[in-house]
Each structure stands twice: as structure tokens, then as C-alpha cells.
TrEMBL record:
One Pfam family, short name: ABC_tran
Gene Ontology MF term list: ATP binding; ATP hydrolysis activity
InterPro entries for this protein: AAA+_ATPase (IPR003593), ABC_transporter-like_ATP-bd (IPR003439), ABC_transporter-like_CS (IPR017871), ABC_Transporter_VariousFunc (IPR051782), P-loop_NTPase (IPR027417)
SUPFAM superfamilies referenced in this protein's UniProt entry, alphabetically: P-loop containing nucleoside triphosphate hydrolases
Keywords, comma-separated and alphabetical: ATP-binding, Nucleotide-binding, Transport
Domain ABC transporter per the UniProt entry, residue ranges: 5-230
Classification via Gene3D superfamilies: P-loop containing nucleotide triphosphate hydrolases (3.40.50.300)
Highest taxon above the source species: Bacteria
Name of this chain's protein: ABC transporter ATP-binding protein
Amino acid sequence: MENVIEFHNVSKKFASFEIDQLNLKVKKGYITGFIGTNGAGKSTIIKMIMNILQPDTGDVHVFGLQQPQAEKVIKSRLGFVYDQNIFYPWLNLQEIQKMIAPTYPTWDQATFLHYVEQFELPMKKAIKHFSKGMQTKASLAIALSHHAELLIMDEPTAGLDPAFRMELMAIFQQVMVEEGRSIFFSTHTTSDLERYADYIVVLDQGKILLHAPTDEILQNYVVVKGSNTLLDRDTKAHFIHIIQETHTFRALASCKREIADIFGEHVVMENISLDELIFYLKAAQRQ
């Protein structure tokens, strides 16, 4: 299956943070959610995709083309949606599109007007007077109007109320399904991932802790609870991370069926949320 983004042994070192030999493949035609706490490295990776930052070592490919050699071609095929306004705040959409349209050979004015109407955006109102949700919709309308094949979104729903956030995520999914685009977005809101992402990448301290299809994660990963008497060297090996208390334990496992076969009715298995999954994966990484 073709990959729209590939990182090959990418390293980037800062004074207090490091990405070391990172490998990542993002599949074409899917929504990939990128999650991690502040400082995990999400923005650094997005900036390297866009060639705002360059890796110290390793290669970054987008559409099979290498950055920075093919930067101009890559950027003409990318769309960006940020968590804050990136346009001149005193300009309106009519003025902004006149500035942006000539920079894209594939700009489609009819498509732009279609999304402006669909998103109910005023053309002659200064961007600074848009709500945060409207600013995000404006960025998306512009990204879609030059037929971007890949949408890169950095916290696109941050700070939005739940209803507005769900509306935007539904739009992202509709765009991907109907027009065959790929979406790569970072977020702190795990409910967005559970509902809409096809794949999830969990990042912590510059390392990928997990990269898998969302449905497989939610079906197979479980929190297991039971008595400490069940734990020995062999049974412990079936868990990713274990938290032991005075008489009981709770642990993360990646295969529900395997745990059921080993422990039977002696343990309780609970479906895991993405927030819990991140907690256990980070704890396992640091033990």
C-alpha cells in the first residue's frame, strides 16, 4: 500500500529534546491521528514534513518525494490547517484568496466558493472578527481549494466547544471519503481519534510508542485487573505494564483473547480508553 509520508531513521536534536532514529509510514487515503502530550515531538515532526525544520540525519519523503529537494512540488500538493489564524488578521477572505490563488497552479475558484458557502463563511468580514471555529473552517476551505492531496492539521479542534468540534471532524471525514485525500492530524482530544481516525500514532519524548489501526487498538488492548497471587514470571510476560497495589494489580495487555485463555474468569478485563492507553504506554517506556 502506498505511503503518503515516510520518515527513514530521522534524528533531530535540541538542547532539551531529541528525536532519535525515528521511522514512520503514513498510509495514503486514510485519516491518521497523531497524539502525545506537550513536548512529545508532534510539532517537530509536522515541521519536518513541511520542511520548516530539517532533520540532522535521515530522510523525509512526502508523496514519495524527498524533502527538501522536492519542497516546491510537495507544498503545492499539501494543505495546512492550524490551531490558530495564520493569515493577516485585518484582511477578509476575498482579499486573502486573491493573494493565495496565484501561488497554486491548481487553485479552483469554484471549489473555494463552494466551501465558503458550505461552511457559512462571510467573504467581506476581517479574519480577526472570525470565531476560532470559523478561522479553522477558513483554513480548511483554502486548503481544499487547490485540491490538496494531503491535509496536515496541527490541533485543528483545540479550544472549540464539543458540538463545533464534532462538526469539523465530520467535515474532515467527509472530505477524505468523498475525494480520496489523506489526513494527518495532531490532537490532545482522544475522543476525536476514537471516532474518526483510521490509524493512531502515539508519540512520547520523540519516540513512537504505538502505530496501529484504531479498531485493532480498541478491540485488542485491555486493562486487566486481578489478584497479585496470579502474577509470576511467566504471567507477567503477557503484560505491557503492571501496576501492583497491596493485594491487587491492574495492567495493560495487547491481546484480549490471550489473556482470557490464560486467566479465564480469575481476572476482570475492561475496554481501554485512549487516555488510559497513553498512560500505560508512557509508564512502560519509562520503567
